[in-house]
Design brief:
Layout (H helix, E strand, L loop, with lengths): L1 E4 L2 E8 L4 E5 L10 H7 L4 E5 L16 H14 L5 E6 L1 H12 L4 E7 L9 H15 L2 H11 L2 H6 L1 H13 L2 H10 L16 E6 L7 H10 L4 E5 L6 H4 L1 H16 L1
Parallel strand pairs: 3-4, 3-5, 5-6, 6-7, 7-8
Antiparallel strand pairs: 1-2, 2-4
């Protein structure tokens, strides 16, 4: 389904009944990154998942995006759907959107789960993102597929679960270049660690032990800065820990959201 919000068409799905729970995906993925979570959570939550600006079935306008713009998209979507409050789960870029939204629109999130993400990048990360932008602008998404998969999954998982790897590869390939570029301008500018103490809702930080992109140290920084947060490190998982270790990920997430929901 699509709805007009914040000046763009946002593609979304709502499944299940109960309190609202919103899922926000990684860069170069789409709402189908959360298929397993929907199966496990829609029995007791009303699960909203959506394609971020520039991804999936949502509009992909050209130009540099900001995390504030992406947070405004989310807020406009929630308002358009009549959602007054929701539990929120964001992975990687989705976690950055979640942090930005929680700070700009306090009181909307009943709980906040930040997965395989960061609240701050070192200054030298800007060059890495600039190179990725140059690559996709010149050659499209294909050159990023293999190196991205290598960062997102451990080598043993890739050998044993080619079907998952191919699903993610297809999402990467189908990401519109303007969307990837727009979000890649936004991501390296995140610098929210010093403000995380303003967030008051229950919070969970999840990270794959073998995540090279947003490593455990970044998760620990978020955990230390978020009052009363819980940290869950998932063994034998890299960046897409929800796909690599779905049982461990969803056990930690489900227990946290159920407790936060009361």
């Amino acid at each position: 389904m699509k709805i007009k919000a914040n000046g763009i068409d946002i593609n979304y799905l709502v499944e299940g009944q109960g309190p609202w729970l919103t899922l926000s995906h990684s860069l170069a993925c789409n709402l189908h990154m959360w298929d397993e979570e929907v199966k496990r959570l829609s029995g007791r939550y009303r699960v909203l998942r959506y394609d971020t600006r520039g991804h999936g079935g949502s509009s992909a306008p050209a130009g540099a995006y900001t995390l504030e713009l992406l947070a405004d998209d989310l807020h406009a979507l929630l308002r358009a759907l009549g959602v007054q409050s929701t539990h929120f789960v964001g992975l990687s870029m989705g976690g950055m959107i979640g942090q930005t939204h929680a700070l700009k629109y306090p009181g909307v999130f009943k709980s906040l789960a930040l997965c395989d993400t960061t609240s701050r990048y070192p200054a030298d990360a800007a060059g890495v993102w600039a190179e990725r932008i140059r690559t996709v602008e010149a050659q499209g998404m294909e050159p990023l597929v293999e190196p991205t998969l290598a960062r997102w999954f451990t080598a043993p998982f890739r050998k044993a679960h080619s079907e998952v790897e191919q699903k993610v590869a297809a999402m990467i390939r189908s990401t519109p270049v303007p969307g990837y570029v727009g979000c890649s301008h936004a991501i390296p500018k995140i610098d929210l660690t010093a403000r995380l103490g303003e967030i008051r809702c229950p919070s969970l930080v999840i990270v794959g032990k073998d995540d090279p992109g947003t490593p455990v140290a970044m998760a620990e920084d978020i955990h230390r800065a978020l009052p009363g947060s819980k940290l869950e490190i998932i063994a034998a998982a890299a960046h897409l820990s929800n796909l690599e270790q779905p049982d461990a990920f969803n056990r930690a997430l489900g227990e946290f959201v159920d407790q936060a929901n009361g």
